[in-house]
Amino acid sequence: MTIGEQETREERKTRSAGTAMHLAELPRLSLDSRVRSAHALITREIAIRVMKGVYPPDGILPNESQLIEEFGVSRTVLREALKTLAAKGMIVAKTKIGTKVLPEACWNMYDPQVLSWHIDAGMDSEFLIKVFEVRQALEPAAAAMAAIRRTNENLRRMRLFLMAMARPAHTRDSYGEWDLHFHQEILFASGNPFMLSFSSIIEASIFRAFKVSAPVDSGERLAASIARHHAVLEAVTRGDAAAASAAMSQVIVEGIENAHFQLATSPTTITLPLRIGAVKPH
Length: 282
Hints:
Elements: H1 8-12, H2 17-24, H3 38-52, H4 64-71, H5 75-87, E1 91-94, E2 98-101, H6 112-122, H7 125-149, H8 152-165, H9 172-189, H10 193-196, H11 199-212, H12 219-238, H13 241-258
Helix pairs in contact: 3-5, 3-6, 6-11, 7-9, 7-11, 7-12, 7-13, 8-9, 8-12, 9-11, 12-13
């Protein structure tokens, strides 16, 4: 019996209140361009203009009066929007100068809204490659930590998510959701709260890459994707940190291949400090 043919009753447990609350702890990208308030509209529009270079780095935004007239909002709404962008490192108010646009290096790139705006502005191949590079640097380490620190509940959820991934008749988006849940559970299982803030990066790479090409586009690629994720699960279950790291690197390489990028040809194995190995999985 294959993974996808196992009891569907178990799959339904993934929609239980406990699992839903567990996943809800991680922030998600807002990929719906329909904004809900004037504040959100203005914040998003200015952010996208900054990202597209309409308002270039080290340049000065139009003054308040100009922006209020253009957007047709109150001074209060505009100032709240600018405060939001300043908190994300995109702009800074300078006395007697105006509001200065900060370079990309100052932005909070892990912020879900910043990533969402990047996608809305048009996430090009160069940006997506950088996202995959960050995944290669961090996710294998998270998988290695998960192999050492995972709980039985973590393993249960990983199995359920993998079963859901193996179901037939997926769309790119539906497969991406279960794929994301699997990777998020690895972050939870790592036991490192800093890893959890990395979830938005994974989400951005999965759903943006799937716009180009996805495992569900062919039966062969889908089977390969499931097998590679299963290798991660098996290594985590065994408590084999090195194997979990290498298997996760292969999963990321697969993502790069799906998006038709040439970034890596072999996995990057992360070696953890030996003292971590003293902790037994339970």
